[in-house]
Amino acid sequence: MRKTYKKNITYSVIPFGAALQMFLIAEPAENFVTLPEDDTQGHGKSVPDWQRQIRSTFDAIRATLVAEGFDAGVVMSNFYLTDIAMKELLRQIAAEFFPKGLGAMTIIPQAPVSGGVCGAEIWALKGRKIKRQESNSDNIIIAESDSVRWFFGGDFRSDNSPVGAYNRSLNAFKNFGDSLTANKFRLDQVIRTWIYQGHLVLPDKTTADGVLQRYQELNRARTDFFGETKFLSKYLPVECKSTAFPASTGIGADDVDVVIAAVAVEAAREDFIAVPLENPHQTSAFSYGVNYSPQSPKFARGMAIAFDNWCQIFVSGTASITDSESRYGGDPTLQTEQTLDNIEALIDGSNLTQHGIRGFDSSLANLECVRVYIKNPNDFNVINEVCKKRLRNTPILYTIADVCRPELLVEIEGFAVTVK
């Protein structure tokens, strides 16, 4: 396992079963700007050079993937934009640099904290036994390795007609479900979702009981979409006695709409385990009281995938919450410390053992890629100081995003990998 840092790119190369995977984070080489020639015609100040910044980001991505031998193996890519109006420009430049695509691509209206116009997160696989299969969509990659079939999907959105956070979220979920079915996967095989909801905490609907946030309406749509699905029953160890839901992040975005990305698995090996993880210091999100949301958030704190001597943990969006209560309101430093404490407890080897995954040691040092969502950009320096101290060389992407409760200032998610 190794982690590498360059000027505008960081990445980890680690095992993916018997193969290898890379998690890569890239941002513009610098925040290139353009100076208007005529202040009466222009903005009167320097403005971001969108194209130059995006091109420098793609140039770094392509060079690194080629150098490491992952250029044909991208399975998921996320691009974070300060302005969603850049979406088509980014797609055009992506097609120029990567004619065969960048896997399941999701474009997310979240501004990188760095001040650049874009940020990127890439997940790529390589190995002689990895097989990529054709899917029926540009935003889906199907891959097979170690007798495990993987679904990587991104950019699932609502159709044009639904109105309101509930209807648009439910429609986006249904479009995602249709893509699973079209590629011979099932909803109960989903292990990880990412849900980016525009204006997350704004009011959306008034009921007899009060005003519902857009996040609460999202939770209601997710509950209705999941229905009575029994997730991962084929792969759960006997020790897993809790309700099973996928790992997930539900986070704010600058657009007014919702976009979803997801991973699902189907395994044809007897030693394959997929188990949702809960934090011993937190109430399970799906058990939250109605004071937080009429329908509780249906997700696990994490998801561990294990077979042979390899284990990968998908860490859900995590905040400064113990039991079900927010902690250290107004203090970004202590909230970040508590959030990392929560992640450390979640992925610790003793917690894995409690969930039926034995023989793996794990700590914050096993995090191979981390995403940090910051509510207030002015909190970046203190949050970054804590993350640098405790996560050391882990590649980190910082973006600006609303968190699900008004008092929460930071949310962190990531991937951890450990081998026996």
List keywords for this structure.
420 residues, alpha+beta, 7-stranded mixed sheet, 6-stranded mixed sheet, 7 helices, 23% helix, globular
| Rg for CA atoms | 20 Å
Overall geometry comes to globular
Content of β-strand: 35-45%
Count of DSSP-assigned helices: 7
Alpha-carbon distance between the two ends? 13 Å
- Quote the average pLDDT: 91
Oligomeric state of this protein: single chain
Task: Enumerate the strands of the largest sheet in spatial order, edge to edge or round the barrel.
Answer: 8-24-23-25-20-19-18
Number of domains: 1
Biggest sheet details: 7 strands, mixed
- Unreliable parts: none
Provide a descriptive summary of the structure in words:
With 420 residues, the chain is of the alpha+beta class. The protein has one domain (2-31, 48-419). Helices cover 23% and strands 35% of the residues. The protein is built from seven helices and 25 strands. It has helices at 50-68, 87-97, 165-182, 214-226, 332-347, 349-354, 380-391; strands spanning 2-5, 9-16, 19-26, 33-34, 47-48, 74-81, 104-108, 111-112, 118-126, 131-133, 140-145, 148-157, 190-198, 203-207, 210-213, 247-253, 258-267, 273-277, 302-307, 310-318, 321-322, 325-326, 367-374, 396-400, 410-419. The protein has a seven-stranded mixed sheet, with helices on one face. Strands 1-2-3-9-6-7 form a six-stranded mixed sheet, covered by helices on one side. The mean pLDDT is 91.
